[in-house]
Amino acid sequence: MDAIVYESNTGFTKQYAEMLAEAVHLPAYPLVEAVSKVPRGSSVFFLGWVCGGKISGLPVAAKRYILEGAAAVGIVFPHPDVVSELLKANKLPCPLFYLQGGVDPKRLGYFKRKILSMIASNLERQEERNAAVWDLVDTLRIGGSYVSAANLEPVLSWVKETEDCEEVSD
Ligand SMILES: Cc1cc2nc3c(=O)[nH]c(=O)nc-3n(C[C@H](O)[C@H](O)[C@H](O)COP(=O)(O)O)c2cc1C
Q1: Residue ranges in the chain modelled with pLDDT below 70
Q2: Which of 19, 53, 82, 145 could bond to 102 as cystine, CB 3.0-4.6 Å?
Q3: Ligand 1 atom, smallest distance to 82 CA
Q4: Which amino acid residue places its CA nearest to atom 28 of ligand 1?
Q5: Closest Cα to atom 29, ligand 1: which residue?
Q6: What pLDDT sits at residue 62?
Q7: Ligand 1: does its nearest atom lie under 6 Å from the Cβ of 102?
Q8: What are 47-87's pLDDT values in tens digits?
Q9: pLDDT attached to residue 69
Q10: How far apart are CA 73 and CA 148, in angstroms?
Q11: Largest Cα span, the chain
Q12: What is d(CA 81, CA 158) in angstroms, rounded to the nearest whole number?
């Protein structure tokens, strides 16, 4: 694998990308920078933030690079169907992981904040409302982060394994 490439709107995907890059000793580039710094056809791990079910930057990254693996960074709980739902809505040529990111209202415009507030209202109306749901509702309205090294662990193990396999076959 040659690099970690990511698309982040408010910085949470960037945090995961940089944590991953540091752990596997690879450079991390935002997609806009990668197009001039990472040659076309390179093999990369891609991370993109989820917007309306779509993984941002994925079509551009998939056209330009060989995607070894990808991670979608969203705000919904990492429930068992989240990956299959994302796979249905996004054309992926590689394994996909899901990571819970965060919300920073100061870095979002009025309409994006409104969309998150609508998601919060839907959550408030659902039948199953536990402490985790209320926490997510607060995060959607006032901001917060779920980014953690523990969340990244499955991605990290997978990337390390893939790297080891590449070394053996070289
Ligand atoms: C307009 C908008 C739409 C969003 N749609 C989704 C979504 O469909 N599913 C989801 O899990 N998160 C959704 N999110 C939440 C973001 O994916 C989440 O805040 C993510 O951590 C942002 O990453 P970033 O800081 O790298 O931009 C949405 C956020 C915004 C602002």
Answers
A1: 169-170
A2: 145
A3: 11
A4: 51
A5: 51
A6: 96
A7: yes
A8: 999 999 999 999 999 999 999 999 999 999 998 899 999 99
A9: 97
A10: 12
A11: 54
A12: 20
Atom of ligand 1 nearest to the CA of 52: 8
Residues 6+ apart with CB under 8 A from 152: 16, 19, 20, 23, 99
Give me 141's structure tokens: 């309205």
pLDDT reported for residue 164:
80
pLDDT of res. 127: 77
**What spacing in Å lies between the alpha carbon of 73 and ligand 1's midpoint?**
7
Angle value at C-alpha 143, between 139 and 148, nearest 5 degrees: 75
Atom nearest to 72 CA in ligand 1: 17
Q: How far apart are CA 24 and CA 4, in angstroms?
A: 10
pLDDT (0 to 100) of residue 32: 98
HSE, side-chain direction, 13 A CA sphere, residue 8: 24
| Closest-CA residue to 29 (of 12, 4, 8) | 4
CB atoms within 10 A of CB 46: 28
Domain residue ranges of the chain, discontinuous segments joined by + = 3-101+146-169, 103-145
Report whether residue 53 contacts ligand 1, using a CB cutoff of 6 Å: yes
- Look up residue 58 and give its two tokens: 């994925």
Is 69 touching ligand 1 by the criterion CB < 6 Å?
Answer: no
Q: Is the beta carbon of 44 within 6 A of some atom in ligand 1?
A: no
